[in-house]
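Researcher: Let's do a round of design. I'm pasting the C-alpha cells now; please hold your answer until I've finished.
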C-alpha cells in the first residue's frame, strides 16, 4: 500500500517528559507507516529552549505563521525547581504564552467523547467547546491594598492631554482595590477567532459576560462581538447556525441543562474557571484537546494536559506507565486534517478521521489506560493496558 503524500509541512513542536515519549510512539506506530509525513521540526524540549535562549520557541511560532498549521507536544513551563533540575540559564516564559502572543490567538478546548464514559451531567450528549480569551482582565491587573482611610481614584491621561478621573471609593477603613484593562484590538481578534472557529466546526456560538453590571467594561465586549458578528451573519444563516449572547449566570444555567454541541466563548477569567469545570464533568483532562486559532487563520493543535511528570519519573525507573496518549493523538489528527483541508488532500483528511476512529474504537472495546478505568460504565469488561500496548492496539485497528 502506498503512503499518503503531503504537499506543505506541518510545524512539529516536540516537548518534554512523558508526553515526549508518547510523541515518538505516536509518530512511529500510528502516523509514519501510513503517511509520508512532512514536518518542519522544532524541538521545544526544555534543554533546547535553554540552549537557544528560547529562540526556538519564537522560531516555531513564526513557522506556524508561515505554514498555517502546527502540532505541539506538552512542554515544561519552568519554575524555580525546574531551573535547578535542568541547570537553566534563566526561568523561561511559558512556550504556550509566547506562541499565543505571537499568533494573537484564542484557545478552544473540547472534550473527546466516548460511549461508556458518561459526562457527570447526564444530558450532555455532545462536546462543549470553551473558547477562552487569553488577554488582560484580572491576569494583567494592578492591585493595591488601602491601608488606611482615604480616597481611591481611577485616572486616564490621553495622549492629547485630556484627563478623565473617577472616584473608585472613599475608604472609611482599610480595604482592597484593583484596576484591570483590555484592548479593543484583542477583543476583536477574539471575536473573529470565535466566529471563524464556529463556522469551521459548524457549531453555534454562545458568548456571555456580565454587561448589565459592568456597563462599560463587559458591555464593550458585547458590543464588539455584535459588531463583528455582522461580518459573519450571512455565513451563519447559510449554515443554520446561531450566535447567542446572554449573561454569564444565565449561560451557566443553560449550559448545565443543554445537550452540548456548541462553542461557549468566555472572557479570560470565566474561561479559566469554566474550562476546568467542563473538562472535569466530561471525564478527564487526558481526553481534552486544545487548539489555538489566530485571527488570520493559523491553527496550532495540542493536548490540554501537561507533560505528566509523575509518570515520567516512573518511566525513568524502568516502569511501563499507563499514560493516556489520546489527547496527543487527537492533536496530530487535528493538525493532519487541517493540513489536508488547506492543501485539498482528502486522503489526508480521511486518514485523520480513521486515526480518531481507531482510537475511540479501542477504548469502546474496553481497552484503555489507567486514568479511564474508574470512569468506565459499560458492561464490557475494561482492560487496563500500558501506553505502549494501547498504541499497538490502535495501530492494529488502523
Ligand atoms: P499534568 O502533566 O497535566 O499532570 C497532572 C496529573 O494529571 C498527572 O500526574 C496525572 O495524574 C494526570 N494526567 C494528566 N495527563 C494525563 C495523561 N495523559 N494520562 C494519564 N494521566 C494524566 O500537570 P502537572 O503535573 O501540573 O504539570 C507537569 C508539567 O507540565 C509542568 O512542568 C507544567 O509546566 C507542564 N504543563 C504544560 C502544559 C502544556 O504544555 N500545554 C500544560 C499544563 C502543564 P496521576 O499522577 O494521578 O496519574
Ligand atoms: Mg485554570
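Researcher: That's everything. Go ahead.
Model: Designed sequence:
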Amino acid at each position: 500500500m502506498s503512503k499518503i503524500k503531503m504537499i506543505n509541512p506541518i510545524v512539529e513542536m516536540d516537548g518534554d517528559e512523558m508526553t515526549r515519549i508518547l510523541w515518538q510512539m505516536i509518530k512511529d506506530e500510528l502516523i509514519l507507516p501510513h503517511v509520508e509525513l512532512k514536518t518542519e521540526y522544532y524541538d521545544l524540549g526544555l534543554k533546547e529552549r535553554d540552549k537557544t535562549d528560547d529562540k526556538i520557541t519564537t522560531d516555531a511560532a513564526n513557522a506556524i505563521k508561515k505554514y498555517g498549521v502546527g502540532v505541539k507536544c506538552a512542554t515544561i513551563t519552568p519554575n524555580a525547581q525546574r531551573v535547578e533540575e535542568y541547570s537553566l540559564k534563566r526561568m523561561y516564559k511559558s512556550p504556550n504564552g509566547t506562541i499565543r502572543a505571537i499568533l494573537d490567538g484564542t484557545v478552544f478546548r473540547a472534550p473527546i467523547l466516548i460511549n461508556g464514559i458518561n459526562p457527570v451531567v447526564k444530558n450532555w450528549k455532545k462536546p462543549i467547546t470553551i473558547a477562552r480569551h487569553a488577554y488582560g482582565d484580572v491576569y494583567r491587573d494592578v492591585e493595591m491594598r488601602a491601608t488606611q482611610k482615604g480616597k481611591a481614584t481611577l485616572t486616564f491621561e490621553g495622549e492629547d492631554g485630556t484627563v478623565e478621573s473617577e472616584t473608585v471609593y472613599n475608604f472609611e477603613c482599610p480595604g482592597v482595590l484593583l484596576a484591570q484593562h483590555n484592548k479593543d484590538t484583542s477583543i476583536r481578534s477574539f471575536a473573529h477567532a470565535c466566529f471563524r472557529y464556529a463556522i469551521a466546526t459548524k457549531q453555534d456560538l454562545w458568548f456571555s459576560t456580565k454587561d448589565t453590571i459592568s456597563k462599560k467594561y463587559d458591555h464593550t465586549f458585547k458590543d464588539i462581538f455584535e459588531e463583528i458578528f455582522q461580518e459573519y451573519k450571512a455565513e451563519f444563516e447559510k449554515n443554520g447556525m446561531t450566535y447567542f449572547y446572554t449573561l454569564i449566570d444565565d449561560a451557566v444555567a443553560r449550559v448545565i441543562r443543554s445537550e452540548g454541541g456548541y462553542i461557549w466563548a468566555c472572557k479570560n477569567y470565566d474561561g479559566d474557571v469554566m474550562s476546568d469545570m467542563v473538562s472535569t464533568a466530561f471525564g478527564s483532562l487526558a481526553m481534552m484537546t486544545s487548539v489555538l486559532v489566530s485571527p488570520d487563520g493559523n491553527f496550532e493543535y495540542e493536548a490540554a494536559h501537561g507533560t505528566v511528570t509523575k509518570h515520567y519519573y516512573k518511566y525513568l525507573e524502568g516502569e511501563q506507565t499507563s499514560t493516556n496518549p489520546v489527547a496527543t493523538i487527537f492533536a496530530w489528527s487535528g493538525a493532519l486534517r487541517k493540513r489536508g483541508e488547506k492543501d485539498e488532500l482528502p486522503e489526508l483528511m480521511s486518514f485523520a478521521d480513521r486515526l480518531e476512529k481507531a482510537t475511540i474504537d479501542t477504548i469502546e472495546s474496553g481497552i484503555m489506560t489507567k486514568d479511564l478505568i474508574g470512569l468506565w460504565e459499560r458492561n464490557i469488561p475494561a482492560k487496563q493496558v500500558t501506553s505502549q500496548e494501547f498504541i499497538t492496539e490502535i495501530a492494529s485497528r488502523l
